[in-house]
Amino acid sequence: MRRFLRMGAAVATLCWGGGVCAQTPPERIGAATWLTGDDYPEVALRRGEEGVVKFAIDVDRRGRVEGCRILESAGASLDQATCRGLVTRLRFKPARDADGKAVAGVWQREMRWKLPGRSSDK
Asked: Mean per-residue pLDDT for 100-106?
């Protein structure tokens, strides 16, 4: 079981049932583009689908992506495109425990899918 605990204003601690706690979350390496317009799923384009996908990337103690979980869906095709692209492109420095030892961690963000040519204002 994973849960987030807040420790002060700027430090989040991630703990697992076995007692392993990360004092610092995984840190994304490089400035690689997460996803581009080329990643927009054809089926979503045809259907006019757009939205926000909230996701969590599981990162192992070596900094390798272990998986992607959808926390809030924008529809199956957008969810799948988000995870497929991120798992192959993202690289990380691992999370660290209180002693500075590399541990597994979770990196959470969101991806906003907008149809090409649409204004960001609603």
From this structure: 96
* Percent of the chain scoring above 70 in pLDDT: 76
Residue 121 CA neighbour count, 13 Å, CB half: 0
Q: Three-state SS string across the chain, please?
A: CEEEEEECCCEEEEEECCCCEECECCEECCCCCCCCHHHCCHHHHHHCCCEEEEEEEEECCCCCEEEEEEEECCCHHHHHHHHHHHHHHCCEECEECCCCCEECEEEEEEEEECCCCCCCCC
Please, which residues bridge with residue 67 across strands? 58
d(CA 9, CA 99): 21
pTM, whole model, 2 decimals? 0.76
In this predicted model, what pLDDT tens digit does every residue of 4-17 receive, in sequence order? Answer: 222 222 333 444 44
The pLDDT of residue 5: 27
